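FORM 7B: Structural annotation worksheet

SECTION A. Query
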Amino acid sequence: MDYRLLGRTGVRVSPLCLGTQNFGAPTSEKEAGAMINVALDNGINLIDTANSYNAGEAESIIGRALASSGRRHETLIASKGYFPTGPGPNDRGNSRLHLMRAFEDSLRRLKTDYIDLYQIHRPSPEIPIEETLQVLTDLVRQGKIRYIGTSTMPAWQQMEAHMVSEMKGLAHFVTEQPPYNLLDRRIENEVIPFCVKYKKALITWSPLAMGVLIGRYKDANNYPEDSRAKLVGHVYADRVTSRGIEVGDRFVALANEFGIPPAQLAVLWAKDQMGVTAPLIGPKSVAQLKEFIPVLEMTLDEEIKKACDELVPPGSAVADFHNTAAWMKMKV
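SECTION B. Predicted structure
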């Protein structure tokens, strides 16, 4: 397998990252533990989670699974903090007060004394980036965090953070985790060029576009009963558009034409784009996880890449996967 450097660090990670948002609901703890072992057995060494996934249960499941298997040393754990952990005004955001509490809670749930990669789940523009970087640097110097990163942050704020780190001698963010799939390619305009120039790893989320790229949705106003768009609505439902479904159907036909399962091709497309370190895969079961394993060794054909560019031109979008980012003003 072609392990890739995690940005400007010396750490090598698998070209796919196991996402765990399904751990605890709908994926059972037993199935989730089996998935972690299958991932590790096949060389996937990066597992991503967050304190907001099922109210911390995803982290707890990972912690118990790794403690039981004794495979913590094989695993690079990436977690995140930012979203509300309680009703209080200080139970959210990227302040020193909140991040210290959130981080220690994550550490306890994960049953570990350090987290390999700790990311701020969204930017807090009202909080000086120096405060956020300072608390994360303190945790790095205490040996509780190995590396730090961001998620769904605009390029200009990433640049600001980079310069503050340089000027103040603080830890640098070494990763960015933005949404990226064939339906929403807007990070190609500024985020990817920034990350390439400053050697920041890209761990991208939602490569299947919530299943739109595998033909899961047939109607932008009528969703499958077990889909997030149906069960949660709002943010997830807003990402399902008529234009996106049309492109998704054409993508499925393209995948079939080339003899590649659509789910594999969607992930492969994201994996082999410029600057991408590892797309997140979020299977619900061991069976689904095994469908993605072959992508670790696959390479995107140039002919297929050009065909995908014709479906959605570089830098453009037909669905809005930045709809949890207040800074993204362009609507789709």
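SECTION C. Observations
Residues 242-258 form the longest helix (17 residues). The chain has one domain: 4-209+262-300.

SECTION D. Sign-off
Analyst initials: ____
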